[in-house]
Amino acid sequence: MVGINLSRSLLLPKIVAMNPILRHLLVERAKSRLKKRTGQEEIPKELLVKEVRSGQVELAHLLKEVLFMAIGVFAAGFGLKGFLLPNSFIDGGATGVSLLIRVTSDIPLGILLIAVNLPFIILGAKTIGRKFAIKSILAIIALALLVHFIPYPTITSDKLLIAVFGGFFLGLGIGMAMRGGGVIDGTEVLAIYLSRKWHLTVGDVLLLINILIFSAGAYLLSIEVALYAILTYLVAAKTVDFVVDGVEEYIGVTIISAKHEELRKMITEKMSRACTIYHGKGGYKKYGEKQITNEIIYTVVTRLEIAKLSTEIDKIDRKAFVVMGIVKDLKGGMIKKKPLKD
Fold first, then answer.
1. Domain-by-domain residue ranges, the chain?
2. pLDDT below 50 — which residues of the chain?
3. Is 135 helix (H, G, I), strand (E, B) or coil?
4. How many helices (DSSP H) and strands (DSSP E) are in the chain?
5. Helix, strand, coil abundance in the chain, percent, nearest 5
6. pLDDT (tens digit per residue) in 168-193
7. How far apart are the C-alpha atoms of 237 and 174, rounded to whole Å?
8. Domain 250-327 sits in CATH 3.30.70.120
């Protein structure tokens, strides 16, 4: 049988090293999928191997996403119950609306988190996808159960510490949930939807929503609470950016120079970084002049390597035209594999 002889005949070390029960489940899942897709009872070994490997990748990513979302739920719960809620503080977004209603009423925060976020998650199912919506609603339910049943200790009564660290832990939770492919604050979904309808940026929509929340907080509670809420929101937003984008920010560098070959050797040999060369023509020219053709270098480095790269470029060609732009993330290539050479 194909399934029985799979690990022996095709020498798949990752599958062999896997737990036998898990390996069996992956193989059976792959066979079932391929039978539905092809309508054949006998599945070619090559197709089966490819499907099993695909299943392994999906499983690994699922476990990573679940871990991220679990950390996010616990961190957000700690920020809410350990800092914000006991001291009647609020935040921006759907969480801020839930906190605002909780402070002005006796409705449990867990119920409010689900009720306020539910319309946004339904909207997310239509605009982003069902998988996203399922992960998000499960994370929000988990957060609701956590803040309702887990007796988090009240950490401090200092207002500045509450705003800063409450925002930090809440932002950590939201960011980790986003890394896991979902959200625990549905305002982002609404912002994406409205930005498409109104031709505004997501940032503009989020700003408008939070202005309304903070204004309501100032009216219902006090101006002081609203000011601390703005601080909490700013700390949370910055933490989300840090968690989602990562500490190792990458910079894409485009270099246009007549000494492109020397620059290429410097990047690949001295800095041990990869680069891409493509041909380009200068767009600006005076009447009667020929268009300048040149080879353009593109490379990606971390922000910690920018100073050294700039120094090396100046050593070769001080007149080189250099353009730098932030790269959110990257996959593959040499930058994550090789250390920077001195």
1. 63-245, 250-327
2. 1-16
3. helix
4. 13, 4
5. 65, 10, 25
6. 999 999 989 988 888 898 888 888 78
7. 9
8. yes
